[in-house]
Amino acid sequence: MRKQFAVIGLGRFGSSVCHELNEMNHEVLAIDNDEQKVDKLSKHATQAIVADGTDEKMLKNIGIRNFDHVIIAIGEDIQASILCTLILKEMNIKQVWVKAQNDYHHKVLDKIGADKIFHPEHDMGQRIAEFLTSEKVIDYIDLSEDFSIIEIIATKKVIGKTLAEMDVRAKYGCTILAIKHSKGVNVTPNADETIKEGDLLVVIGHKNDLKRFQRDGI
Ligand code: ATP
């Protein structure tokens, strides 16, 4: 389904969000107060305009109210980012997602009702550290502070075993959601499914349980 998004602030983060949404064939309104940034991005958005994200009148005039989803990617000007968030939440925009610069910024954004707050540099740093310290984990998604989904390589320890024999749920409190292999993905695999060389396991669980599983179970 084609959705409508507005992205305010076209730095590295904002522009890459625009690129991706545009590639996915969604409608994207891109806004920045720097004309050069807007020109650079115009090919990768449905509409790109030069405007100040803290100008309430302008935001109303361009019909920002019609957007269910606005991403604020204004970086260093924390004051502008906060004001823009406040204006959009007062306009009852359903989803206002904001890039935060630091923990104080995050706290304020949370208080004024930002629906999702990102720390791209921090999150990416954490992700890279996670990969560097685990040779088995291929990818992971944070579901909340406590829960994640990881994609992990099947090692010799489990190759040839069935899911029932691995007994991951009882031993580690984690659940194997899917097994990826060369021919495709087996979603919700049966207990008698045998793990083969080259398989990737998609596992959900509490982060502590996943760590135990990575260390001892695979
Ligand atoms: P990134 O890491 O994503 O490149 P950054 O954290 O370095 O970004 P900035 O470059 O400070 O952040 O800001 C991102 C973009 O937001 C810039 O292109 C800037 O012109 C734009 N911007 C800043 N203030 C406003 C504003 N009030 N209205 C619209 N755009 C703004």
CATH secondary-structure class of the largest domain: Alpha Beta
CATH superfamily membership of the largest domain: NAD(P)-binding Rossmann-like Domain
As a percent range, the share of helical residues equals 25-40%
Distance between the termini: 39 Å
- SSE string, helices as H and strands as E: EHEHEHEHEHEHEEHHEEEH
Pfam families: TrkA_C, TrkA_N
Organism: Texcoconibacillus texcoconensis
Domain RCK C-terminal: 135-218
GO molecular function: monoatomic cation transmembrane transporter activity
Entry summary:
37% of the residues lie in helices and 27% in strands.
Walk me through the structure.
- With 218 residues, this protein is of the alpha/beta class.
- It has 2 domains: 4-118, NAD(P)-binding Rossmann-like Domain (Rossmann fold), CATH 3.40.50; 123-217, Alpha-Beta Plaits (2-Layer Sandwich).
- Helix content is 37%, strand content 27%.
- The protein has 9 helices and 11 strands.
- The strands form 2 sheets. It has a 6-stranded parallel beta sheet with strand order 3-2-1-4-5-6, sandwiched between helices. It has a 5-stranded antiparallel beta sheet with strand order 7-8-11-9-10.
- β7 (137-142) and β8 form a beta hairpin.
- The longest helix has 14 residues, at 120-133.
- The radius of gyration is 22 Å and the shape is elongated.
- The model has no long low-confidence stretch (mean pLDDT 92).
- The site of adenosine-5'-triphosphate has 21 residues, from α1 and β2.
- It holds the Pfam family TrkA_N.
- Residues 135-218 form the RCK C-terminal domain.
- One of its GO terms (molecular function) is monoatomic cation transmembrane transporter activity.
- Residues 2-118 form the RCK N-terminal domain.
- This is Trk system potassium uptake protein TrkA.
